[in-house]
């Protein structure tokens, strides 16, 4: 009987641990984060720096492949303007794998596929993973920590004649 009780207790703890990953989050929080992420994505697709920055925290930290960390809204603006000036992004697909909510923070984990068309040169196709820590701030959820990890170096396509 003690073994059955112990098994039941273990199962209850295991189930509650799985459930606890979303404790403190609501359906409204998840919906708001997904909407903010979609707005960020749309900003890149439209080449609209202001739209992309509108969901970035003032004290954001960007951790991008092969580059030093970028801190703050001003640093993010500089990176976004440079990237959006150099490249047009006609396609950006995000595959969210997990959205974990706890209180005023959420962790968004997934993969992405991106097509970048430089002002000069061959089209680049990039794939990788992302991890975003969202923070609830006055006015909504904002990207607070943002990390990208490319699967392989982005490869340009061959020009065809």
Walk me through the structure.
With 161 residues, the chain is α+β, with helices and mostly antiparallel strands. It has a single domain (26-156), classed as Nuclear Transport Factor 2, Chain: A (Roll), CATH 3.10.450.50. The protein is built from 4 helices and 7 strands, in the order H-H-H-E-E-H-E-E-E-E-E. It has helices spanning 2-20, 27-46, 49-53, 72-86, and strands spanning 56-63, 70-71, 87-102, 105-118, 124-137, 140-150, 155-156. Strands 1, 2, 3, 4, 5, 6 and 7 form a 7-stranded mixed β-sheet that branches. Mean pLDDT is 85; it is low at 1-24.
Please sum up the structure shown.
The chain has helices spanning 2-20, 27-46, 49-53, 72-86, and strands at 56-63, 70-71, 87-102, 105-118, 124-137, 140-150, 155-156.
Question: What keyword list fits this structure?
Answer:
single chain; seven-stranded mixed β-sheet; alpha+beta; Nuclear Transport Factor 2, Chain: A; globular; 161 residues
């Amino acid at each position: 009987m003690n073994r059955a009780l112990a098994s039941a207790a273990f199962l209850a703890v295991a189930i509650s641990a799985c459930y606890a990953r979303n404790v403190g989050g609501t359906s409204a929080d998840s919906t708001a984060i997904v909407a903010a992420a979609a707005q960020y994505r749309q900003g890149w697709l439209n080449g609209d720096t202001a739209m992309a920055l509108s969901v970035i925290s003032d004290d954001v930290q960007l951790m991008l492949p092969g580059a030093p960390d970028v801190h703050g809204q001003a640093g993010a603006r500089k990176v976004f303007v440079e990237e959006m000036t150099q490249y047009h992004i006609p396609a950006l697909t995000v595959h969210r794998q997990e959205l974990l909510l706890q209180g005023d923070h959420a962790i968004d984990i997934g993969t992405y596929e991106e097509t970048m068309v430089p002002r000069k040169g061959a089209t680049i196709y990039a794939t990788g993973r992302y991890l975003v820590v969202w923070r609830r701030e006055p006015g909504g959820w904002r990207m607070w920590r943002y990390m990208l990890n490319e699967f392989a170096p982005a490869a340009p396509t061959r020009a065809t004649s």
